[in-house]
Every structure is written in C-alpha cells, then in structure tokens.
C-alpha cells in the first residue's frame, strides 16, 4: 500500500482513510466484484466495477473477480465469459485467477455443520407456504418453526442425508437459528441451504444442496481476505446477517460491509430478470443489442470504456438514492468522442445532384481535416465530380423563414468543396423528386462567393466513389422516463417503437470502404456512428450503428 492514498472523492474512500489513520485497518486493501453469472452486466454494474477496482487502485490494493454461482439453474458459461470480457474491456485487471463461490462449497458445507453443532442452525421441514406464514410481517413478529428445537444430532444427520441426495427438492432446508421476533425480517431464521438437483457449471453433479447468497457472501469474502465488501443499498438490511454468520463460525477474518446507492437511470431498465425478458421475447436482438443498457450492448453501439468510466466518476458514490438523467451518460460519450473521433461524411437518405456546368469526365481530389480541432490527425481525401449525393432532408421546394439549406434558386456550400445553386428539380412518374440539377461556382473553393451569400453548409459525397452502407439509427429503448413505474401496465408497454430505424442504401465517403472498428466516426452534421463488425460481415458492406446524436434531442 502506498504511504499516502490519492485524494478521496467519495464517502467510502473517506471511511477507509479514517480507519487507516486510526489504526483500525492495517495491511493491504482488498475488494471484490462479485456478479451472479445469470445474465450480462449492465450500466449499473459498470458503476460497481469502477468503484471496487477504483478503491483498490486508490489504496494500492487489489480487487478480486468472484462469480456468485450458487444458483446453477439460472447460470451459464456464456454469462461468465461475457462478464470477464466486460471487466477487461472497461480497463481493469483482477487479482490472480478468477474466483467462484463454488470454490468454497466444501468450506461452506463444513461451516454449516459447525453452526449446527453450536446449536446455531437446524434442519426444517416446513413447506415454502408454511415458512412464509411463520415468518410474520413488518409489523408482527414471526413464530418459531416446530423443528427449531430439533436435537443437534438429528439436524446433523438430516443435513448429511440432504447432502447425500436422500430427500427431494424442497423437502428440507437448513436454517439459521437467530430470532423469529427480530424487527429485521432477514434475521428471522433465514435459510442457509436448500436442496437442488441441478448440474453446476463448475462442480458438475457433486452437490445436490446449494448455499444461499446471504450465507455464501460473507464466508467467500472471509476466505479471500476481503477487507471492504462494497454492496448496493438493498444489502444494508442484510448486513446484520452478514456479520452474524462470520461471528458464529471460525472465520479467517471479518470483512467490513459498506453500502452505497445503486445506479438508477431514467428511460432504462437495469433488472437482469427484465432484461432477460426482452431477450427471451425477441424484443431485442440478444443481450448485446445496441439498445440494451448492457455493457456489451453499449460497446457494440460505440460507447468507449473511457466514456463509461467518466460517467461513473461524474455521478459519484453516495448513500442517497435517486435517478440519474440519461443525458449525463450521453454527455459523457459526446465529450469523449468529440475530442477523439475522426470526421467523415455520410449521406443517410441520398438525393442525386448533377452539376450541369461541371465536366462529366472530370474529377477533383479535395482535402479535408480528419479532425478540425486536431491537425495532428492529418487529412482525408474526398472526390468532387459532376454527380453527387446530398441528404433529402437538406432540400425543400418552399423554403421556410431562416432556412439554412438548399432550395430552388438558392445556394449552399458543400462541406470542404464549392458553392452550388439549385436550378431545376427532376421528378419521376409518380412525382417523387429523384434529382436536382445545380450549377457550381468554380471560384468558391475555400473562399466566399462574390455578390451573393450561401444559405449554409451541407454534407455530400461523390457518386463515383462513395461507399454503399446501411445505417442503424438507435435511440432510447423506452419512451417512458420511468418504464418500471407503471403500476397498472407492464414495462414492455413502454418499449419505444422508434428505438431502431434502419436506413438502407446510405452513401459514405470513400475512406469508409474499410472503416475503423475501434472508435466511432463523427458523421458530420449527423452524430457519432460505430461500425458494427458482426452486421458488416453478414451484409458484405459497412453497417454503422448510431452511438449518439450530436446534441440532446430528448431534452427538447
């Protein structure tokens, strides 16, 4: 540990610094990130990852990655692999090997026997319904199970028979013997072990009894020498049980549990169970759909690890709950990409333009900056030719007041190129506009025209060597600020029907024939767009996902 830790930025750092100063903590700070492998990580987990690894880094300690794999029926290797990839992508390295709660199943079992032998646990045969009835309510105490005073030898014998597979699922459970009248319901003789005949992804069929999370968590922390067990606020009421377990076994150490507020983000769902429902009901294209708030989905959309870490730093760590505005997350990615993203032009909805006074057999190579505020990123080349494409939305036949784009007999500058004036509108048999005939001003490359003023600047590409591509316009998955708050309906009722708009046949400048795959582009005047490698391989041409618009359109 370094002699002087970095300046504290949150109350957890303050608590640790205070403990160090008072001598209440000595030695290395050890934290852990303990996800359940029953789904993909989401943006809320990103906050926990940044906190746990960040605290360890601040105090020159280490952070373990441990999978809480006590529920084999809902877990899979797919989730384990995805979680490891997400942590690494965010830029963190865990201490030593990946750990699993299942690594400690033997120890957990022996500690359970120790509790039985001390008269601190018993085997109970109440059904789930009966147990709920005996538990009591928030205002009324529970009542003791008729099996609570079962002799130690009998409970020990039954527990070993549970282990040996002599009872059916749900027939018996092992419960802690604490206090059925406790005002904290978590302390009313909670279940420690239940019978589950299910193959485990790490231990196979060795076990048919599995420990509960509230029992596994403190022991796993103690087995790993965790000093600070950082949990979200919903575990605050579980802390007395965490401490009770460790106080009543021969635990190798006593970690300190500290709770912080979880991330709640508007227009978003961060329940893995509900995200899984979106996947299972085919409302999204898998866990890594770019509309999903999963880390893998955000990565595929074009979010950068730097932007997610910056966002987590912006929202801070505190004890107070509350909801963070999605605009903060979008601000973080805009800030990062504005500084680093290469620029390019892409015409989303191509409209043909013919420059009637430009030779059909002539082309020019124009040079534009890769990043106008960063000359060190160099220049890019685009082709000027007689036939160009502009975006249909940049032309109207009847220009409204203060119109800053193209209209009949009005002029605009093409980004990095010449000024042109629209002279004729060409329609097909159905009356749809299919072409604009324009004249360019050869004296306006890099200089203002004499005698008139262009309406504005629009983007364009050449027909001759532009790249055919598809565009996925991704937006917020939900159109309700709090999709989970509808007491009468279902959160799925608030799925945004415009969360994905697919544009086929867009045209991008020639440099995007082989697009970058590590950082989104800023498509000038449109937003930030990331090449989707998976979809590009399937389509045989570039496919770009919109990461975020240039400005907050939802704020309006």
TrEMBL record:
Monomer. It catalyses: tRNA(Gln) + L-glutamine + ATP = L-glutaminyl-tRNA(Gln) + AMP + diphosphate. It is found in: Cytoplasm. InterPro entries: aa-tRNA-synth_I_CS (IPR001412), Gln-tRNA-synth (IPR004514), Gln/Glu-tRNA_Ligase (IPR050132), Gln_tRNA_ligase_bac (IPR022861), Glu/Gln-tRNA-synth (IPR000924), Glu/Gln-tRNA-synth_Ib_cat-dom (IPR020058), Glu/Gln-tRNA-synth_Ib_codon-bd (IPR020059), Rbsml_bL25/Gln-tRNA_synth_N (IPR020056). It comes from the Bacteria. L-glutamine binds at residues 68, 213. This is Glutamine--tRNA ligase. Residues 28-338 form the Glutamyl/glutaminyl-tRNA synthetase class Ib catalytic domain. A motif ('KMSKS' region) lies at residues 269-273. Its EC number is 6.1.1.18. Keywords: Aminoacyl-tRNA synthetase, ATP-binding, Cytoplasm, Ligase, Nucleotide-binding, Protein biosynthesis. The keyword tRNA-binding does not apply. It holds the Pfam family tRNA-synt_1c. Belongs to the class-I aminoacyl-tRNA synthetase family. ATP binds at residues 36-38, 232, 262-263. GO terms for molecular function: ligase activity. Residues 341-441 form the Glutamyl/glutaminyl-tRNA synthetase class Ib anti-codon binding domain. Residues 457-532 form the tRNA synthetases class I (E and Q) anti-codon binding domain. It is an enzyme of class 6 (ligase).
């Amino acid at each position: 540990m370094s002699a002087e830790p970095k300046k504290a930025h949150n109350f957890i750092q303050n608590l640790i610094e205070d403990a160090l100063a008072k001598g209440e903590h000595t030695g290395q700070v050890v934290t852990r990130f303990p996800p359940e492998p029953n789904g993909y990580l989401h943006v809320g987990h990103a906050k926990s990852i940044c906190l746990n690894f960040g605290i360890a880094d601040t105090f020159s300690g280490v952070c373990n990655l441990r999978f809480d794999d006590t529920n084999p029926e809902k877990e899979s290797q797919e989730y384990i692999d995805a979680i490891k990839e997400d942590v690494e992508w965010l830029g963190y390295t865990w201490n030593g090997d990946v750990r699993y709660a299942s690594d400690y199943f033997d120890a957990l079992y022996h500690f359970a026997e120790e509790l039985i032998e001390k008269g601190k646990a018993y085997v109970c045969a109440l059904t789930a319904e009966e147990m709920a009835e005996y538990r009591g309510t928030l205002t009324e105490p529970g009542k003791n199970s008729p099996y609570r005073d079962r002799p130690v030898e009998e409970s020990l014998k039954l527990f070993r028979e549970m282990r040996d597979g002599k009872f059916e699922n749900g027939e018996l459970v092992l419960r802690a013997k604490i206090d059925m009248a406790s005002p904290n319901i978590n302390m009313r003789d909670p279940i420690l072990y239940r019978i589950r005949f299910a193959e485990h992804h790490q231990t196979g069929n060795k076990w048919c009894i599995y420990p509960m999370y509230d029992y596994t968590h403190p022991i796993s922390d103690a087995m790993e020498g965790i000093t600070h067990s950082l949990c979200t606020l919903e575990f605050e009421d579980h802390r007395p049980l965490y401490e009770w377990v460790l106080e009543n076994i021969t635990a190798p150490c006593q970690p300190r549990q500290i709770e912080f507020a979880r991330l709640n983000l508007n227009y978003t769902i961060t329940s893995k169970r509900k995200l899984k429902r979106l996947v299972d009901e085919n409302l999204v294209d898998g866990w890594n759909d770019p509309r999903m708030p999963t880390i893998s989905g955000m990565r595929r959309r074009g979010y950068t690890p730097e932007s997610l870490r910056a966002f987590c730093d912006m929202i801070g760590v505190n004890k107070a709950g509350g909801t963070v505005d999605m605009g903060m997350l979008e601000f973080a990615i805009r800030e990062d990409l504005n500084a680093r993203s290469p620029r390019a032009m892409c015409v989303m909805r191509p409209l043909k333009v013919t420059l009637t006074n430009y030779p059909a057999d002539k082309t020019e190579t124009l040079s534009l900056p890769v990043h106008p505020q960063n000359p060190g990123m160099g220049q890019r080349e685009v082709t000027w030719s007689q036939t160009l494409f502009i975006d249909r939305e940049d032309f109207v036949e009847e220009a409204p007041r203060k119109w800053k784009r193209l209209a009949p007999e009005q002029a605009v500058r093409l980004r990095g190129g010449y000024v042109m004036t629209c002279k004729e509108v060409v329609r097909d048999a159905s009356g749809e506009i299919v072409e604009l005939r324009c004249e360019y001003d050869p004296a306006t490359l890099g200089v203002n025209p004499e005698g008139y003023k262009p309406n504005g600047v629009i983007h364009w590409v050449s027909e001759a060597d532009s790249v055919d591509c598809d565009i996925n316009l991704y937006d917020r998955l939900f159109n309700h600020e709090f999709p989970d708050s509808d007491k009468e309906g279902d959160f799925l009722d608030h799925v945004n029907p415009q969360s994905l708009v697919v544009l086929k046949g867009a045209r991008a400048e020639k440099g995007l024939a082989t697009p970058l795959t590590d950082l989104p582009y800023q498509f000038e005047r449109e937003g930030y767009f990331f090449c989707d490698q998976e979809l590009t391989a399937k389509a045989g041409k570039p496919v770009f996902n919109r990461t975020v618009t240039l400005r907050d359109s939802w704020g309006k």
